[in-house]
Design a protein that fits this description.
Layout (H helix, E strand, L loop, with lengths): L1 E12 L2 E9 L10 H14 L6 E6 L12 E6 L5 E6 L14
């Protein structure tokens, strides 16, 4: 899965930007069969979202095929060097399969 993140800076101190917002931008293709395909598409994804945010970074994330439809959150943090640390998670607020009362 390719993730394109827009980050908005709030302050700059010694060339390090503190971020106030990290959000996903929509791209035409976001799921790939292999990491190589995802990495090959990254420059094109950057071009697709050019101008939609001040600072845009991309990262390819591994997806467990068994949980592919369960992921509902992207957690992202920007490192001081401007690179992205992102992961996909499953929200704790989603009802589990065992939460349904069956009579």
């Amino acid at each position: 899965m390719s993730v394109v993140i827009a980050a908005r800076g709030t302050s700059v101190m010694q060339h390090i930007t503190a971020l106030a917002e990290c959000r996903e931008l929509q791209v035409p293709v976001s799921v790939f069969a292999t990491a190589d395909e995802c990495n090959a598409e990254r420059p094109f994804a950057m071009g697709d979202v050019q101008g939609q945010a001040q600072h845009v970074v991309t990262e390819c994330l591994a997806v467990d095929p068994a949980s592919e439809d369960e992921y509902d959150q992207i957690v992202c943090k920007m490192r001081p060097d401007g690179s992205l640390n992102a992961s996909l998670t499953i929200s704790d607020l989603r009802p589990g399969k065992d939460d349904v009362n069956q009579q």
